[in-house]
């Protein structure tokens, strides 16, 4: 073991006893955190709960959208130099942005970051209906701010690109135009809106099922620590697979940034391709309802959820006992309900 007189990390220390040497090196530099003051506690208690939730939802969507459209901007504005961007980088930007959004803001608001998810929480999980409108507004607002900030940061490059396109007689609102940095537009050859509808519907359904599976507390394969990255990767895989066709995946992400596109590049941001925007904005809601319904009706195991201590039977322990007895899971005389707070017999 290392000698007790060791005070600095050196090569010899590591050979003698790395653990003791490292512990001494670290503990010498520990600074105790300041105590929490009563004033701080009073301030935090006085903050309106609804305001904290709204700001968390707006911030989370900002964290998700901002890196994604920034990577898209680097991709579109630097086509002459592929090192600056690709669909692969865009997918990772959204994936990591989503993970950061969940890690940063979900403890405050629940981490919806998508109007469709908020609606599904209300429909399936009893989320308060009165909170739905201001959650959705906050999510759209977060995407709007992300779009505005990006336009400011890339103003010089976007202005130069805009002038170049105008001089060449090319449109500003297109999948490769500056408006395409902010929101989704199909290619000029993709005029079949039924086809675009189905692409969006199935992509959003895929993501919705993954999200609902990650949020299932009875799912043994996803821990709270891995869920943000699993959900982010679900988005990334859909970007890698279908971004060349056109996908939106989120009402708030698309509408918030599309409003910014309309401000800077005109109303064609909404009327492009005979109103494609209705697909990119609205299809996410029925698709996610379908996906979560698929999971709830065909894959959810509520008994396992109760057994894991994450839910209770509506009739309490007595109701659960009746259910188990009626279904033949346990004999009547041996029905014992074990809750999370009970000790092993």
Question: What does this molecule look like?
Answer:
- There is one protein chain.
- The protein is mostly helical and 345 residues long.
- The longest helix is centred in the first third of the chain and has 29 residues.
Write the layout of secondary structure elements.
Layout: H1 11-27, H2 38-46, H3 49-77, H4 87-109, H5 115-125, H6 132-153, H7 155-168, H8 193-214, H9 227-242, H10 251-265, H11 268-275, H12 277-282, H13 284-298, H14 302-307, H15 316-326
Helix pairs in contact: 3-4, 3-6, 4-9, 5-6, 5-13, 6-10, 8-9, 8-13
Outline of this structure?
65% of the residues lie in helices and 0% in strands. With 345 residues, the protein is an all-alpha fold. The longest helix is centred in the N-terminal third of the chain and has 29 residues, at 49-77.
Number of distinct beta strands: 0
Which parts are unreliable, with pLDDT below 50 for 5 consecutive residues or more?
9-16, 331-345
Which bin fits the share of residues in helices?
Answer: 55-70%
**Largest sheet, described in full?**
none
Strand percentage lies at under 5%
Put simply, the count of helices is: 15
- Give the N-to-C terminal Cα separation: 44 Å
Coarse structural class? mainly alpha
The ordered H/E elements are HHHHHHHHHHHHHHH
What are the key terms here?
single chain, 345 residues, mainly alpha, 15 helices
